[in-house]
Amino acid sequence: MINDTSKQASQDAIEWALTHGMALKTTDYSAVHTAFSLTPTPITTARYQKLTASVGLLGKLVHFASEDCEFLTQAIEPITKGDPFFHALLEMYQAIHQTNQQPIQQLTQQAAQSAKRLPLLIMRSDFMDDAALGPKLIEFNGIAAGMGPFGQRIHELHKFLQLQALEAFSEWSTPATGKLVANRALENLAQGVAKATFKINAEFAAVKPDASVLAPIDSTTNAPTFLMVVQAGEDNVYDQHLLEHALQAKGIRTIRRTFRELYGKLKTGDNHRLLLDGVGAIDTVYLRAGYQYCDYHANDIISRVCCDALMQTRIFIEKHRVAVNASVSQQLATSKRVQMLLSSMEPAALTRFGLTLDEAIAVKELLGEMIAVTKDSAAIVANSSNNDWVLKNQGEGGGHCIFGDDILPKLAELKPSEYQAWALMRRLHPTARATTALTVRKGELQQVDDLISEIGMFTVHIDGEAAIEDENSQKQAYAGYLIRSKSARSTEGGVHSGMGVLDSLVFSNK
């Protein structure tokens, strides 16, 4: 029941959210709080420990897959006829690594020699905790692994409410819950980015920049510098700014640019140093754009092919000695196509990607069932329960999954040349919260009696090595989590573009 106590707690939470940057931009001068759950979702200690112990292996797997040029080329080529964007991505990949003229057996060696960038893999692996199967991977997110800062903030908000509004917090919490599950995603992601940034900066410490392409030298010119490539008119800026503020606190200068703003402004310094006019040397490039064609649109640039000019800008970046997340190879390796291929491999085959057999077995347990779309897919779906499958294309973000009665009509529309760009994934059915949850969206309170959660686990690798140090100074890849919850009746669970809400975790005593 939504009473005055609940209303006061939600108002306190809204003000806390706005105070701490947990918001989305609405105009140039205003913002609205992100949607959130008033109380956290429970998870068993065993489930949580299994995920944190194993998720780093997924990052390791994806890194080695992204650096395996032969595998990546063979994996992506079949979908290029049915997906023009991935055709363009593969061409970008070949231009970066100079592989388009090489025999297939020489690709990996050639790619290793031609690539100058330092791979910084910041990945979010999204899971659903199926009632029968346990946690299973939904998708990898490499180029859009955002909302880590919001993940930490909503944990902190729930910690605040537990102290400040205990009566309402207890009323809307699931019985038999224990301690809140700590989340240091913002701090750890900043730590990983800073480590890569300082590594590149140190490599060039003795190299003087080419002053002819720089702004006048001042005390900040040689500061370690982080460049975030963003979308024009982005409304999800506060999550990004929280990461920037954490980096600034570590002595790192942060710059924001769109691909269009970078066009014609990047230069080459000594030893393949990446330079930006008016700024100086760049140590790390972090892409929050580039995963759809519209990020490369520039109608004011005369180019032989739409988007080619700004794609050339991305190619130019990777040909320099700079830490990059996400590289084009990482974007390809985190695609649904590669996920499907990896999920269908036996553990022994997965050892190709830097894993021991025991590690490959642990990874295999996390990978959900995916199958390629073929001429027989319609029959498979027709002979299954209506909720057994999800049809997915290669797109990232919301709006790229097809459910239920809409699957068969879509399959009928597809041309055979488009089959490989689509996949069927076994649908997961997590258990809803045992009690009604209270969510807050744009100041409005809503009771949800079937709240389910998607669990995003962040990992950070630098050139394949785990990049996070825990409180005991032990290296690990796991960096924190992001929980997005929604009604089981909703198919779009994104906080930014769907009907999801930010959430956090609490240990279940059961």
TrEMBL record:
Q: Which GO terms describe its cellular component?
A: cytosol
Which GO terms fall under molecular function for this chain's record? Answer: ATP binding; glutathione binding; glutathione synthase activity; metal ion binding
Looking at the Swiss-Prot or TrEMBL record, what is one Pfam family this protein matches? GSH_synth_ATP
EC no. given is 6.3.2.3
Cofactor requirements of the protein: Mg(2+)
User: Which keywords label this protein?
Assistant: ATP-binding, Glutathione biosynthesis, Ligase, Magnesium, Metal-binding, Nucleotide-binding
Part of which pathway? Answer: Sulfur metabolism; glutathione biosynthesis; glutathione from L-cysteine and L-glutamate: step 2/2
Residue span(s) of domain Glutathione synthase substrate-binding? 225-333
InterPro entries (alphabetical): Glutathione_synthase, Glutathione_synthase_a-hlx, Glutathione_synthase_C_euk, Glutathione_synthase_N_euk, GSH-S_sub-bd_sf, GSH_synth_subst-bd, PreATP-grasp_dom_sf
Q: Does the keyword Cell membrane apply?
A: no
Spell out the PANTHER family in the cross-references: GLUTATHIONE SYNTHETASE
Q: Which family does it belong to?
A: Belongs to the eukaryotic GSH synthase family.
Q: What is this protein called?
A: glutathione synthase
Q: Which organism is it from?
A: Shewanella pneumatophori
Traced from the root, the source organism's taxonomic lineage reads: Bacteria, Pseudomonadati, Pseudomonadota, Gammaproteobacteria, Alteromonadales
